[in-house]
Write a structure and sequence with these properties.
By secondary structure, the chain is mostly helical. It is built from four helices and two strands. The longest helix is centred in the first third of the chain and has 17 residues.
């Protein structure tokens, strides 16, 4: 069953929804620890000013403002080799279709 984005937002604001989201996020990063480490390394680099905040960048694939940093590889030497992408292009890089629900 698929729920509307508004229903999903309401659920994730409840205590049960918050616990569920945390549990799912922990499981996601437990499956591949390199993803979590790479994400934290980029967050740390942004905080230190080594990498600019993604909101100040343009998408590498189109003229839209960037929303995410994409890791082409999760190998340790590539943790800071990230590409700024908008949501639509980030989905496309992962072979998914982005459905704008705004």
């Amino acid at each position: 069953m698929t729920y509307s984005p508004a229903a999903q937002r309401r659920y994730h604001q409840t205590e049960k929804g918050k616990r569920s989201r945390r549990r799912n996020q922990r499981a996601y990063y437990r499956r591949d620890k390199r993803r979590g480490l790479a994400k934290r390394m980029v967050q740390s680099a942004i905080a230190k000013g080594i990498i600019p905040k993604v909101a100040s960048r343009r998408c590498a694939d189109c003229p839209e403002p960037a929303a995410h940093y994409h890791h082409p590889s999760y190998e340790r030497e590539d943790w800071l080799s990230v590409v700024p992408l908008c949501v639509r292009c980030h989905y496309a890089r992962h072979g998914k279709v982005y459905a704008d629900t705004r």
